[in-house]
């Protein structure tokens, strides 16, 4: 073999080796990216037999009445509200007369209300704090960071609906009647409860028209009258199904889009979420569970207060329950429970062997899981 031929052969082998090296590196990088994006679809970090965990067993009909609350369980029925320990022992109870009792929990407080009825009560893990009647049928409630309670009620023949705000002892401190803004849909308090946001939908014209109204709330709430900060709308016919604050950024959501208030204008973000199924705010970010269409797999996206998507990945098909803490988000979907931090990192992936009804965070890195078979505590 001549020197020229050998030199050419060596160069060819080097080029082949370099090409193979590039392909190998690209393959490794691609596998890493795919593995990170599809982690939610891989095997769980741990598989849990729920019946073997701490807690107590009960029938499915009983489990449907239970909510994870504080360090225990809230049992909600039409005639009685009871707070239980994780062993099932009763701490206290309160008699009610509700046709369709529902429960809204935030932090250390819970509001139990009669959906399409006329009563609600607020409680913590020691006692009922107050119980009040309403003049109109209750449609939804929310709790602010400093324990104000916002209530949406049905309208009368003279209005589309009324919204009430109650302070920490149950005193009514604000009410708003929708005479021309349409039906109230959602309410949200900002972080320090200095602003109340109300979304509504007018069906009076040929085209549905959504509205966002903002009110400034005095601090303390009893020290003065709320001030009207303005009314806003959009021209694309969106229906604001929910509203929330992420830090000081207000987001409203239609069935497939996210809007924010910018320079006194409601503007859509350049984000496409197909069909939005669930939204929650945690620690300065928003978790959005959505699908690309009917019968499509659910995905979870995390956006920050600037509207940037910092995480987006498939998670599963059927949403069972959601729980939040100050810095964590838990999603029960299919037979899996994922715990995310605010960067969108999955810090725990648990497979369970029973259908999950509700979940909640408790201290010492534990979850309360209410399943069709009872109440259980699981480490995450």
| Poorly predicted spans | 28-40
Quick one: overall form?
A: globular
Major sheet: 5 strands, mixed
Annotation field: number of helices: 2
Structural class: mainly beta
| Percentage of residues in strands | over 45%
Radius of gyration over all CA atoms, rounded: 25 Å
Number of strands: 33
Mean pLDDT score, rounded? 90
- Cα end-to-end separation: 67 Å
What are the salient characteristics of this protein?
single chain; 380 residues; five-stranded mixed beta sheet; 2 helices
Annotate the secondary structure layout.
Blueprint: H1 3-37, E1 46-48, E2 54-57, H2 60-63, E3 66-69, E4 72-76, E5 80-84, E6 90-95, E7 101-106, E8 109-114, E9 119-123, E10 128-133, E11 138-143, E12 149-154, E13 161-166, E14 172-178, E15 183-189, E16 195-202, E17 209-216, E18 227-233, E19 242-246, E20 249-253, E21 258-262, E22 265-268, E23 275-282, E24 285-291, E25 298-304, E26 309-316, E27 319-324, E28 328-333, E29 336-341, E30 346-352, E31 356-362, E32 366-371, E33 374-379
Parallel strand pairs: 1-30
Antiparallel strand pairs: 2-33, 3-4, 4-5, 5-6, 7-8, 8-9, 9-10, 11-12, 12-13, 13-14, 15-16, 16-17, 17-18, 19-20, 20-21, 21-22, 23-24, 24-25, 25-26, 27-28, 28-29, 29-30, 31-32, 32-33
Please tell me about this protein's structure.
This protein has 380 residues and is mostly beta strands. It is built from two helices and 33 strands. The protein has helices at 3-37, 60-63; strands spanning 46-48, 54-57, 66-69, 72-76, 80-84, 90-95, 101-106, 109-114, 119-123, 128-133, 138-143, 149-154, 161-166, 172-178, 183-189, 195-202, 209-216, 227-233, 242-246, 249-253, 258-262, 265-268, 275-282, 285-291, 298-304, 309-316, 319-324, 328-333, 336-341, 346-352, 356-362, 366-371, 374-379. A hairpin with a 2-residue loop joins strand 3 (66-69) and strand 4. The longest helix is centred in the N-terminal third of the chain and has 35 residues, at 3-37. The protein is globular, with a radius of gyration of 25 Å. Residues 28-40 have low confidence and may be disordered.
